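TASK: fixed-backbone design
INPUT:
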């Protein structure tokens, strides 16, 4: 009796961007297939486009503001605190003019303060750029260190760093 072989090729794990794209695609497919949810897609696309138009018109300090509602020419924006709401109130005439020039029928804009927990953006990681001579010097240091239990962890760390630096372009 022969056993059928089930060959499964190795697939590398997905990175976070690929997982997000896959999940987003799955969510969009689900929304399109469900008739009651499919009716929401045009409204979601419209709100998303309006959110992008507002973000393009406002300074970066208003990135935490979101559109809560847009009906009958009245738009409701949320802000995380009263101070930002006061600053946003000064920008409303300019924002309304810009949105109208972009084709949005915005007759009035209201602001609603909704206190939420704001997580600061993660600072970009800065890697230390080492010249090739420095990496070579670390490799020589690792080779010149005495093979003892006390130096073992240091040698492993240096070797790992040298391998990582040499594999980078």
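OUTPUT:
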């Amino acid at each position: 009796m022969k056993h059928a072989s089930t060959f499964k090729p190795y697939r590398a794990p997905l990175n976070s961007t690929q997982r997000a794209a896959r999940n987003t695609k799955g969510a969009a497919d689900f929304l399109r297939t469900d008739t009651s949810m499919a009716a929401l897609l045009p409204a979601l696309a419209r709100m998303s486009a309006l959110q992008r138009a507002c973000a393009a018109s406002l300074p970066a300090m208003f990135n935490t503001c979101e559109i809560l509602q847009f009906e009958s020419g009245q738009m409701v924006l949320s802000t995380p605190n009263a101070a930002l709401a006061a600053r946003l109130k000064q920008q409303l005439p300019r924002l309304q003019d810009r949105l109208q020039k972009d084709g949005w029928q915005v007759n009035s804009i209201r602001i609603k303060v909704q206190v939420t927990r704001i997580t600061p953006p993660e600072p970009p990681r800065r890697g230390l750029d080492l010249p090739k001579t420095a990496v070579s010097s670390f490799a020589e240091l690792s080779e010149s260190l005495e093979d003892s239990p006390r130096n073992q962890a240091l040698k492993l760390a240096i070797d790992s760093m040298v391998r990582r630096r040499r594999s980078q372009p």
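COMMENT: The chain has a mean pLDDT of 82.
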